[in-house]
């Protein structure tokens, strides 16, 4: 049975990076091939729980983390969340853990962070896979609810979101059926540590993608 969100968190630890407590895990043999997994919005590193066993059993040393504002990492209110800042936190984590080169797998929001990491220093990334990333912001077509949540009205509504609304919204966005149990784990990750109060600030990443489109492409 796969670890639930709370069990996943219990298996990791926190490091203070740039004044913030950032959750991370390392799994697999210490001398294994390094792989770093970057999660998407609005969940956490727990998204990778299903594929972790295959990676570790194949001999990989897998590093996962929760971005600032996500999962079990700090979620400061009033913070100007930036994917460029998230990239800096990843670099700092690599430095603290002694990771000089790694394969990199990124999903959704994490793809933009990975693009920034590549733009800074591509020599550190030995190979890479991108999943459902926003490489071309001009092609992005948000659902009405996704657009609403980036407006001033969304700033008011986000703290009022219920788990039922969360499940309904994700089911519209995701391209395949997802069990209630999995959506519940995502809800726990998003709301952990007062997470509903930072969603509006996090959700402004679309503007950052547009601003950095040329550099990241």
Structure notes:
By secondary structure, this protein is α/β, with parallel strands linked by helices. It has one domain: Rossmann fold. The chain has eleven helices and six strands. Strands 1-2-4-3-5-6 form a six-stranded mixed beta sheet. It is globular and about 50 Å long. The model has no long low-confidence stretch (mean pLDDT 93).
Query: What is the assigned CATH homologous superfamily?
Result: Alpha/Beta hydrolase fold, catalytic domain
Unreliable segments of 5+ consecutive residues:
none
Please write the CATH class name. Alpha Beta
- Would you tell me the overall average pLDDT? 93
List how many beta strands DSSP finds: 6
SSE order in H/E notation? HEEEHEHEHEHHHHHHH
Q: What do we call the CATH topology?
A: Rossmann fold
Helix and strand content put the structural class at alpha/beta
Helix share, percent: 40-55%
Based on CA atoms alone, the radius of gyration comes out at 17 Å
The 3D shape can be described as: globular
- Going by CATH, the architecture would be 3-Layer(aba) Sandwich
Q: Describe the main β-sheet briefly.
A: 6 strands, mixed
Through-space gap between termini:
39 Å
Number of helices: 11
